[in-house]
Amino acid sequence: MKFRKLFRLIFTLCIATTVNQANAQGFLKAKGHLIVNEKGEKVILRGMGLGGWMLQEGYMFRVSNLGQQYRIKEAISGVVGPQKADEFYEKWLKYHTTKADIDSLASWGFNSIRLPFHYNLYTLPVDREPVAGQNTWLEKGFALTDSLLSWCKANKMYLILDLHAAPGGQGNDLAISDRDPSKPSLWESEANQQKTVALWKKLADRYKDEKWIGGYDLLNETNWGFEGPKDTRGTAENKNAPLRKLLIEITEAIRSVDKNHIIIIEGNGFGNNYRGIFPLWDSNIVVSFHKYGNFNNEGAIQSFLDIQKNYNVPVWLGESGENSNTWFTEAITLVEKHDIGWAWWQHKKIGINNPLEIKLTKNYQDLVNYWAGKGEKPDEEKAWKTLNEFLENTKIQNNVFHKDVIDAMFRQVQTKETKPFKIHLLKNALTINAVDYDLGRQGSAYFDKDTASYHFTPGVNTQGNRGRMCRNDGVDIYQAKTGDYYIGHIEDGEWLQYTINVAKAGTYKLNVKASSKDNTGEISLNINGTNLSNSLSNPIKGEELKLYSLGNVKLKQGENKIRVVARKGGFDLKEIQLN
């Protein structure tokens, strides 16, 4: 979409957030179980993680087979050479996240940013240091952070620094920390640990007086077995002594230069295993946990509610997301009920479950296929053209804006009310794309039997939007060869609501454009809360799209809500037509 159009959409979705965003005051502090500002006012952090900018993970860009960032760079070098690969990454850092991105996130309602950073933008790896045991500081990372902080300050947003890729790498999930398993990890190298401590001291000294730095997230998602080789993910550890020791050492280094900022800690087992970490060693600590793919009930977060209560310490959902809109609304509602703020993951990638989507082009897909061993190697000229096309698509003005994601994270947390996804005005005739159903919660704007992914819950195999196209609700949206979107995998009892404005009250013919491979499908209507007797009771026949009449409907002048109900599923729906 065009840049101006994008920003018109942005500002129509501006959220009237609390005093915590507009009038934030001073350094954030831990006070009992709350995070407060300098006036002692409660602050609920509503944040976004900038995943993919300073640290790439393969899944974000459809190259999961490559995994770590260093391997992605090697693959790029393999098609365009090392010099152009370096140029690619310079442009990547310039294009991916800009002031326009931060301005947009602020306008949508976010009051904080979590920056997942890679240590190698700030200092050299230990095996490349000219003098062993010393630290060479690189200006690039600090300059990027300075720019980001200036954009956050302009928007009165807190910036939380998150060491996502520590020297050597902190876990066995290699892509998370860009870890090279042929080299000593963070936990296998004293030099890597010393460099980690030194980096945090350097950052703290640089930003000690910056009140819009919200806190220091010391070490992202350790997943490491300290007590035995079998626990590769760190979820079964009972002592976590090396992790506690390093967290204390980092804290002491920070406090030697910075007495002001919150220290944010994460447990082992991807941030959630805190056995052996307590008691806490500083009075200004926030305990972070991460939440993905489980149910959104109090049982799912009970261990952290216990920490919040028993230790009288603030708890923060430091990373979550990668799911459907329904899951987003439920998760945010759950944690805010308990005075817990959050930071979502992530603001853009290829895919629909984030505010901004990087478009997937045929040329890039061909390159991905080659890297996966499923296609021919492109020549250098074509590969470089493809990579530059991809770089252009990372810019916010070329991203696809998913207003449904923002609506789910903010408005839908507060209300069950629906609103139009698009303006549908009926004068003489109107065609509505089926995918343009209303914005709103499951059960209010639509009903689907499978609305979210619970991939970390054994025995639960739901997916949400099975087509993974267009919108991030539970509704299953697919793309035809023509490029048009349609709704498929429709099951018995599912429905979609469309709000339309009618210029003149009257009786209108209502048709649907649909198809069915299995010659099934029965549709009924609900108009303004009333179930109508007229329906399409004969099966929808044939794989070709055809118009099917549901008869005449009476519509009042002004706003009308039409629900298209699948009395029997098994069909695909493309359009609703009124004339």
From TrEMBL:
The keyword Nucleotide-binding does not apply. One of its GO terms (biological process) is glucan catabolic process. One of its GO terms (cellular component) is extracellular region. Residues 445-579 form the CBM6 domain. The lineage of its organism: Bacteria, Pseudomonadati, Bacteroidota, Sphingobacteriia, Sphingobacteriales. This is Glycoside hydrolase family 5. Belongs to the glycosyl hydrolase 5 (cellulase A) family. It comes from the Bacteria. Coiled coil: none annotated. Keywords: Glycosidase, Hydrolase, Signal. It comes from Pseudopedobacter saltans (strain ATCC 51119 / DSM 12145 / JCM 21818 / CCUG 39354 / LMG 10337 / NBRC 100064 / NCIMB 13643) (Pedobacter saltans). The keyword DNA damage does not apply. One of its GO terms (molecular function) is carbohydrate binding. Residues 1-24 form the signal peptide. CDD domains: CBM6_cellulase-like.
